[in-house]
Amino acid sequence: xxxxxxxxSGHQQADTGxxxxxxxxxxxxxxxxxxxxxxxSQNSYRGLVKIYADGDQRPKFHPMRLHVDWRGLRRTYVPxx
Length: 81
Fold this sequence. Notes:
This protein has strands at 2-8, 13-22, 31-37, 42-51, 67-68, 74-75. By secondary structure, it is mostly beta strands. The chain has a two-stranded parallel sheet. Strands 2-4 form a two-stranded parallel ribbon. Strands 5-6 form a two-stranded antiparallel sheet. β5 (67-68) and β6 form a beta hairpin.
């Protein structure tokens, strides 16, 4: 499991991310990343999950959630294949 929290305020910008690489059979992982922005600050997250063909069962992917900030602006994140 991987946990991450990014806190920004004022005019700060945080660019965070995670790489998870699966090289064995029957492997799985969980990535939980949260960003909290105050004022005019911004958070961005980039993630990569790589699965090598050696494994006989691939882990299941769960769709990323929709985030809504205090102004009602929506930021969606989609997996890149």
